[in-house]
Amino acid sequence: MVNTPLAKRLCPRDISEFVGQEHILGSGKLFRRAIESDRLSSIILYGPPGTGKNALARVIANKTSAHFIELNAVTAGVSDIRKVVDAAKNQINLLKQRTILFIDEIHRFNKLQQDALLPDVENGIIILIGATTQNPYFSINSALLSRSQIFQFESLKPENIKTILIRALDDKERGLGNYKVKIEDKALEFLINSSNGDARKSLNGLEIGVLTTLPDANGIINFTLAVAEESIQKKAIIYDSSEDSHYDTISAFIKSMRGSDPDAAIYWLAKMLHSGEDPRFVARRIVICAAEDVGLADPQALMLANAALQVSEVIGMPEARIPLAQATIYIACAPKSNSAYVAIDKALDDIEKKPILQVPKHLKDANYSGAKNFGHGIEYKYPHSYKEGYIKQQYIPEKRKYYEPQNRGYESKMKEYLEKLKKHESEFEKGN
Question: For residues 139 and 254, what is the distance between their CA atoms, to the nearest angstrom?
Answer without folding.
Answer: 25
